[in-house]
Design goal:
CATH architecture: Up-down Bundle
Number of helices: 5
CATH class: Mainly Alpha
Strand content: under 5%
CATH topology: Ferritin
Structural class: mainly alpha
Largest sheet: none
Distance between the termini: 50 Å
Number of domains: 1
Shape: elongated
Helix content: over 70%
CATH superfamily: Ferritin, core subunit, four-helix bundle
Length: 170
Amino acid sequence: MSNSKTREIFVTGLKNARAMESQALAIMKPQVERIENYPDIAAKLQEHIRETEGQISRLEEILTSLAEEKSALKDATLSVTGAMAALGHTVAGDEILKNSMANFAFENFEIAAYKSLITIAELGDFAALVPPLKANLDEEIAMADWLEQNLRPTTIKFASLKEAGASAKV
């Protein structure tokens, strides 16, 4: 594979990842603001928001090192899409469950994106740029694992609150 084509693929992937992380923020921030009955989920989302902001910084540093800039159009488009996705769940009677499932799916999408980016970096002789991508990947894997481990307890708590007649929505 030609190094210029590999670089082009890598830069596009980096810009897409940067926009993807902006979308993640647009999804998580409204969710965390609405959570009342699930403080553990709110705390984990707050932690992952901070991690995501760090991931964006790492991606921007990589782009800068390649003399590239983020894609403002991709960022804006995916941020709006993320905000709309978060808003869509607010009308669901089981919003916390919908959010948990959607977040788990999105984390796995991010994991796949970083695994692909790392592969392209290795193919294109950008091995020096792999560590920050690996740091992002590790954070996404940790969040996906947490969501998976907490889906059952969240579902049980939701059902218990519903049975008790309490607000189980968020």
